[in-house]
Amino acid sequence: MVFIGNLLWFAFGGIWLGLAWVLVGLLWCCTIIGIPFGIASLRIAGFAFCPFGKKLVPSPAAGVGTAFLNLIWIVFAGFWLALGSAIAGVVWCCTIIGIPWGIACFNIAQASFAPLGKIVVKK
Prior knowledge:
By secondary structure, the protein is mostly helical.
C-alpha cells in the first residue's frame, strides 16, 4: 500500500512539491552560508517526493543553534513552501478520496517550518 500511495502521490502532484524543495535547496547551496539550509532542503525533498511510509523526527545531533537557523529559514523560504503545501492539502481534502494526500501535504507544510534538525525515518 505504501508503494501505491507514493506512486499516486508522485503522479498527482507530489512531483511539484518535491521539485519546489529541490529548487530551494539548490538555490541555498549557491552560497557557502546557505549550504546547511540546502542540504536540509534536499533531505526534505526526498520526503516530499515519497511521503507515505516515512516520518520526520528530530535529529539527535540538533543543537541550540538549530532553532535560530530555522527562524532564518522561515523568513527566506519556509513560509512560501508551507503556504504551497497547505493550499495543496486543502485542495486534496476537498474530496474524501484525497484526504490521505491532503494529510501528507500538511505533514510537508509542517516540515517547511523547521527542516533543520530533522531526519526522515521509515515508519
